[in-house]
Amino acid sequence: MNEEKIREVLAKVKHPAIDCSLIDLGIVKDIKVEEDKVNITMAFPFPNIPIGNQLVRSVQEPLEKLGLDVEVKTTVMNQEELQNFLKKEGENWKGM
Fold first, then answer.
1. pLDDT of residue 30
2. Phi, psi of 95 (to 5 degrees)
3. Residue 1 buriedness (CB in 10 A; 0-12 / 13-18 / 19+)
4. Cα-based torsion angle of the residue sequence 81, 57, 41, 12 in order, rounded to the nearest 10 degrees
5. Which end of the chain is more exposed for a tag (fewer CB within 10 A), N or C?
6. What is the pLDDT of residues 56-85, one digit of tens each?
7. From the centroid of its chain, how far is CA 62?
């Protein structure tokens, strides 16, 4: 499986409170594929977000169902990424 296919799968993973995919929001930042192993870097808008584990699981589960070994690292968005996230959040907020 290549990065493009992984992105297709993850494009369906939506944020629970924002009507956007985690890719569109910039939360899924980097994807590296080596055979059956996928390394994903997720960038959160701020440290220790309450739904961080839920978001990580929402990315891991569909890929693990495809038989992939998924490792997720988390980081915090830089200022530019945060501004893009906040703009999309404001445009697409649906609440929880």
1. 96
2. 80, 175
3. middle
4. -60
5. C
6. 999 999 999 999 999 999 999 999 999 999
7. 12
Nearest to 37 by CA among 8, 72, 4: 72
pTM (two decimals): 0.93
Tokens of 17: 């409170």
Distances (CA, A) of 46 to 4, 61, 82, 87: 27, 23, 9, 15
Q: What is the mean pLDDT of residues 14-18?
A: 95
pLDDT in tens, 18-61: 999 999 999 999 999 998 899 999 999 999 999 999 999 999 99
Domain segments of the chain as ranges: 3-79
For every residue of 44-70, DSSP letters joined together read ESSTT-TTHHHHHHHHHHHHHTTT-EE
